[in-house]
Specification:
The complex is a heterodimer of chains A (61) and B (159). Chain A has 61 residues and is low in regular secondary structure. Chain A has a domain of 37 residues. Chain A is built from one helix and two strands; from the N terminus they run H-E-E. A two-stranded antiparallel ribbon of chain A has the order 1-2. Chain B has 159 residues and is mainly α. Helices cover 62% and strands 12% of the residues of chain B. A three-stranded antiparallel sheet of chain B has the order 1-3-2, covered by helices on one side. In chain B, helix 1 packs across helix 2, helix 1 packs across helix 4 and helix 2 crosses helix 4. The radius of gyration of chain B is 22 Å and the shape is globular. The chains are: A little secondary structure (61), B mainly alpha (159).
């Protein structure tokens, strides 16, 4: 079986991982409730999209 | 490169995929709006549009072709009598897909697909289901009260 020839230093591991991170999703502002929402999707807070499309949110419980 | 990939395969073999799409199209024609994933909504869109085009043709052969695709005779009737006449002056683009969030169980993105001009149908259905829910809740409450009274009596006897 092939084996590593040299010790792998902590710095090497750290340097490799320097670029491993999550990025924030792009958010848009809901024109109805001013809440942050995902673009091109109905607002999760108020259920509006393109001025009207109401999907019942919350109050339907 | 995604060259020459005309259809989404949806993780299914040909028959399974065809059955799924036929079911989705039939449901949409009957219900005006259905909630599903954006991928399935987009995959079914051309099929729905073809059905509506058949509905606009309106002749006997078109009806037979629609009946051979749709799952129920009622949906064929509804397509030709209710759905297709609404789109007489429109060439395609009969549908709207809106992404609505994420499903609890598996985190999949959800969307609804609806026939344009379905607002009054959808609203009427929402009102009706709310009424049904209220009625059912009332019935359950009554049943609970009755059985609760009985249960209390039995409890006394046991003591």
């Amino acid at each position: 079986m092939p084996n590593p020839k040299r010790r792998h230093s902590k710095a090497r591991t750290g340097n490799r991982r320097a670029h491993d991170f999550l990025s924030q999703p792009t958010m848009a502002e809901c024109p109805n409730c001013k809440e942050k929402k995902l673009p091109h999707r109905a607002c999760a807070k108020c259920g509006h999209y393109k001025g009207r499309e109401v999907i019942a949110v919350g109050e339907s419980k | 490169m995604r060259h020459r990939l005309a259809t989404k395969r949806l993780g299914r073999n040909t028959e399974h995929r065809r059955a799924l799409l036929r079911n989705l199209v039939t449901s949409l024609i009957m219900e005006e709006r259905i909630h599903t994933t954006p991928t399935k909504a987009k995959a079914m869109r051309p099929h729905v549009e073809k059905m509506i085009t058949l509905g606009k043709r309106g002749d006997f052969n078109a009806r037979r072709l629609a009946a051979s695709y749709l799952m129920t005779p009622e949906s064929v009737t509804r397509l030709f009598n209710t759905v297709a006449p609404r789109f007489g002056d429109r060439n395609g683009g009969y549908l709207r897909i809106v992404r609505t969030g994420f499903r609890k169980g598996d985190g999949a993105e959800t969307a609804f697909i609806e026939l344009l001009g379905s607002e009054k149908f959808v609203e009427a259905k929402q009102v009706k289901s709310a009424e049904d829910r209220a009625k059912r809740a009332e019935e359950i409450r009554k049943a609970m009260e009755e059985s609760g009274a009985q249960g209390a009596d039995e409890g006394k006897d046991a003591k």
